Amino acid sequence: MDGARYPLDSPGSAGWKTAVAAARAELTADGCCVLRGFIRPELLSTLRNEGVALAPHAYYTVEDVNAYNIPLDSPLPEDHPGRIVLRRGNAFVARDLIPRDALIHRLYRDERFQRFVADCFGLAELHEYTDPLAGLCLNVVAPGNSHPWHFDTNEFTVSMLTQEPESGGVFEYCPGIRSREAENLADVKAVLTGEGERFVKRLALKPGDLQLFQGRFSLHRVAPVGGSVQRHSAIFAYSDTPGLIGTAERTRQLFGRVTPDHVAVGEVRGDSLLD
């Protein structure tokens, strides 16, 4: 990483406090923060090449989903936004297929990085997912596909673009469109039907940028990718509570397989939101 702007080796230093304070201010204002140039320029080719090598191992599938990632036949009112069908065409490389010496894997496990991210989110501590597949993954969006509108199951997300597409693939989000107490269904439906442009913000990301995002309450998507180059991004999955494992249904949807750990786990949520 760029140690001058992001002094991970000096927790509590003036530089550390400056970077953390800036990140917290952006997260408070917008639910999203981008730490530009987090990876040093000389490592960007390594970051990209490792992603290119991993991409063929992704679980590629195109399926119909909704913004809440619940079954399409769920009993919902006729005007509920969960009835709007979206096409999901992104793919994921699971953690157990990512080499331990890969740059994104080393960064994910780095305790200094974890401490820095926790401070940016204002968390006392941060824990890696226990999930053997979803703890760290590479998200692949091929030309012509997209990662449609959705909410995250975790309150915060850490990601990094590793390969930029030729065109499209813009990250779009609706800051705080729902809260822990309210789904705000009318606003969500407006975005899904193309009538809620006023809620949508767009973010231009570059390889090596670190994105911190509160995706539990902000509807978001990766717009369709154009050209001939895939969009790759690493997703670093952390939680403020230990032992988190995804459900079997969601894991099978994303990775095409499950482990005994997934079969044994129950549904875990910190609120009563639909997803």
Summary of the model, kept short:
The protein is an alpha+beta fold. It is 24% helix and 21% strand. Helix 1 (14-30) crosses helix 4 (111-121).
From the alpha-carbon coordinates, what is the Rg to the nearest angstrom?
18 Å
The CATH topology comes to Jelly Rolls
CATH class: Mainly Beta
- Going by helix content, strand content and strand pairing, the class is alpha+beta
Note the run of SSEs as H and E: HEHEEEHHEEEEEEHEEEEEEHH
Helix content: 10-25%
Reported for the largest beta sheet, the result is: 6 strands, antiparallel
The coarse silhouette is: globular
How much of the sequence lies in strands comes to 15-25%
Order of adjacent strands in the largest pleated sheet: 1-12-8-15-6-4
Low-confidence stretches: none
Number of domains: 1
The total count of helices amounts to 7
Secondary structure elements and pairings:
Layout: H1 14-30, E1 32-35, H2 44-54, E2 63-65, E3 86-88, E4 91-93, H3 103-109, H4 111-121, E5 127-128, E6 136-141, E7 147-150, E8 157-163, E9 167-168, E10 171-174, H5 185-192, E11 201-203, E12 210-213, E13 219-222, E14 225-226, E15 231-236, E16 238-239, H6 248-255, H7 260-264
Antiparallel strand pairs: 1-12, 2-3, 4-6, 5-16, 6-15, 7-13, 8-12, 8-15, 9-14, 10-11, 10-13
Description of the molecule:
This protein is an alpha+beta fold and 275 residues long. The chain has a single domain (14-264), classed as q2cbj1_9rhob like domain (Jelly Rolls). Helix content is 24%, strand content 21%. The protein is built from seven helices and 16 strands. It has helices at residues 14-30, 44-54, 103-109, 111-121, 185-192, 248-255, 260-264; strands at 32-35, 63-65, 86-88, 91-93, 127-128, 136-141, 147-150, 157-163, 167-168, 171-174, 201-203, 210-213, 219-222, 225-226, 231-236, 238-239. It has a six-stranded antiparallel sheet. Strands 7-13-10-11 form a four-stranded antiparallel sheet, with no helix packed on it. Helix 1 (14-30) crosses helix 4 (111-121). It starts with 13 loop residues before the first helix and ends in an 11-residue tail after the last helix. The model has no long low-confidence stretch (mean pLDDT 92).
